[in-house]
Design a protein that fits this description.
heterodimer; A: about 325 residues; mainly alpha; ABC transporter involved in vitamin B12 uptake, BtuC; B: about 260 residues; alpha/beta; three-stranded antiparallel β-sheet; 10 helices; 11 strands; about 30% strand
Chain lengths: ~325, ~260
């Protein structure tokens, strides 16, 4: 019984996140003895080990937690709002639209003038995508409509991203597109954390505030409303929260897909399929997933520079197919 | 509890669904809403529940306008839609617990009192043994009871139910009407739409008979269920028998079809 309790699960995921966070700090291309690593991290200093810990590994670990957490949480919220287990920001094209926003900010030169232009532009891209999805899918979105809408948004955003790069004189354009499409946490600094953290934390608050409404939506929109839930308010929190979170995440790490699909799906049976209780555990689960995937990029194929987005997609895409088959069987 | 409905009109698209409909109700009674398909029963129930815009007229529940104060009304009014849809594989206890939502703050967990209320209601509805089973695995009759328990967990003063007996076998229909009677005797008004005239005749205290968006007859069972009224509204030929305690309606045929 206690193993089934959501509190136990939350604590377990919290401990796992902590362990993976420490592992993330200790595992890297340069091997640093544990004691030296920790003292470098805590006390700082001029030694290379302290600089690596504070300026390379710490921001990377923090970003993995923030981004993994917000991607897992937004997946759980979108699934609850649309009442569809296949809803996820990556599949639905929100990540691609955010990355288009980021690319526009870079190529228009806006981001060079004002650092926050990058996350803001990515968020506007994400916001437009979520709004289109919501309008397209309407009240009773069929699985097919939703996925097709995602395909359309992804293709459109992809084409516009390519166009931006196509028209750009910058010879590094090709490198940039690879960066946005693969997703990575390499070489991120504390500046990136400072850029993304406020938006992601705000997204966390907004998304968590939808918990009760999502629970009520289990019985449909009419009953939810009769239970006093303000649906317009809920949609606002879910859509803007997703746009802020996914936009900021994409702005600093590129497109990292499938976390919002895989994590809530694995955790749902463990919280009695309750969309309210799924939210906090999906955030923690997302953080664990991304920390683990990021550690894997450092230990697997070390000399080939494996990208984070590739790892999450390699896990996520087959999982998505399996989920589609299972949903098809059920219906 | 007081419902005031004066001259309401509801237009959807270019069609008038409800036309200048008025009725008042005070006190705990079982009210049956009847009428042919398309008469506007569901629309009226949804309007009272605050889920449907009213084009004209005034509708208040205890002086509150349904669409203006949804969270206040959730404390006194529960709504049971016709579809018994639950989107996730929730267990029955979690579904009934949803009824306590209006009584909790945004991040507040269910209190001991909430758990006690849910437990008691599930016991009364005879579904306490199903508490931890998934909703999708129980029978249709049991599902109907779980969803009523959810509405009752709101501790409403008025319960709106859209064709609650739909899809249930006769025994379950009778049990459901008895449950509603019990709810009424506990002080809650129940307004339900129903197609079965005999079931309505047996259990309802007041009948609202609708036709093409109008409330055409309103009153006690004996006043409303007459041969003339039923022929006018449904186009059916009936025999009506009165016994000491109840009235029963025997549907003889449909004249139009006979002549055709």
């Amino acid at each position: 019984m206690i193993l089934n309790s959501p509190l136990f699960l939350t604590i377990l995921l919290g401990i796992t996140t902590f362990i993976l966070a420490v592992a993330s700090l200790l595992i890297g291309y340069v091997s640093i003895p544990t004691g030296e690593a920790l003292s470098g991290l805590i006390f700082g200093g001029e030694e290379p080990s302290a600089i690596i810990m504070r300026e390379i590994r710490l921001p990377r670990m923090l970003l993995a937690i923030l981004i993994g957490g917000v991607l897992g949480l937004s997946g759980a919220v979108l699934q609850g709002l649309l009442r569809n287990p296949l809803a996820e920001s990556g599949i639905l094209g929100v990540g691609a639209a955010a990355s288009l926003g980021a690319v526009i900010a870079i190529y228009s030169g806006l981001s060079a003038y004002w650092a926050f232009a990058l996350p803001l532009s990515a968020q506007i891209g994400a916001l437009i995508a979520v709004l289109i999805l919501y309008l397209l899918s309407g009240r009773r979105a069929s699985m097919l409509t939703l996925i097709l809408a995602g395909v359309a948004i992804t293709s459109m955003a992809g084409a516009l991203t390519s166009l931006a790069l196509n028209l750009s004189d910058n010879p590094y354009a090709a490198l940039e597109i690879v960066f946005w499409m693969l997703g990575s946490l390499e070489d991120r600094s504390m500046d990136h954390v400072i850029l993304a953290a406020p938006f992601i934390l705000l997204a966390f608050v907004m998304l968590l505030m939808t918990a009760k409404a999502l629970y009520a939506l289990s019985l449909g929109e009419d009953v939810a409303q009769s239970l006093g839930i303000n649906l317009a308010h809920t949609r606002f929190l879910a859509i803007v929260g997703t746009a802020l979170g996914v936009g900021a995440a994409t702005a600093v790490a590129g497109v990292i897909g499938f976390i919002g699909l895989v994590v809530p799906h694995l955790l749902r049976p463990l919280v009695g399929h309750n969309p309210m209780r799924l939210l906090p555990v999906s955030a923690l689960g997302g953080a664990c997933f991304l920390l683990l995937a990021d550690i894997l990029t450092r230990v697997l194929l070390v000399d080939r520079d494996l990208k984070l987005g590739v790892v999450t997609a390699l896990v996520g895409a087959p999982f998505f197919l399996w989920l589609l088959l299972k949903t098809k069987e059920k219906s | 509890m007081e419902i005031q409905c004066s001259n309401i009109q509801i237009i959807r698209g270019h069609r008038e669904i409800i036309s200048s409909l008025s009725f008042q109700h005070k006190g705990a009674k079982l009210i049956g809403l009847l009428g042919p398909n398309g008469a506007g029963k569901t629309t009226l129930i949804r309007a009272i529940a605050g889920l449907q815009n009213i084009s004209q007229g005034e509708l208040t529940i205890n002086d509150l306008q349904p669409q203006q104060s949804p969270s206040k009304l959730a404390h006194i009014m529960a709504y049971l839609p016709q579809q018994r849809t639950v989107h996730w594989a929730l267990n029955n206890n979690e579904i009934v617990m949803l009824g306590r939502l209006p009584h909790q703050q945004t991040f507040q967990r269910p209190s001991d009192e909430d758990h006690k209320i849910v437990q008691d209601i599930m016991k009364t509805m005879n579904i306490d043994a199903l508490a931890h089973r998934p909703f999708e695995e129980i029978s249709g009759g049991e599902q109907a009871r779980v969803l009523i328990a959810r509405a009752l967990a709101q501790q409403p003063e008025i319960l709106l139910a859209d064709e609650p007996t739909n899809g249930l076998d006769p025994a379950h229909q009778i049990r459901m009407m008895e449950t509603f009677q019990q709810v009424v005797s506990d002080g809650c008004t129940v307004l339900l739409s129903i197609h079965d005239i005999n079931l309505a005749a047996q259990y309802c205290d007041r009948i609202l008979l609708m036709q093409e968006g109008h409330l055409v007859h309103d009153g006690a069972v004996k006043e409303v269920f007459t041969q003339e009224n039923l022929s006018q509204v449904y186009g059916i030929e009936t025999e009506i028998r009165h016994s000491a305690e109840r009235l029963s309606v025997n549907i003889v045929g449909i004249p139009a079809m006979v002549s055709a």
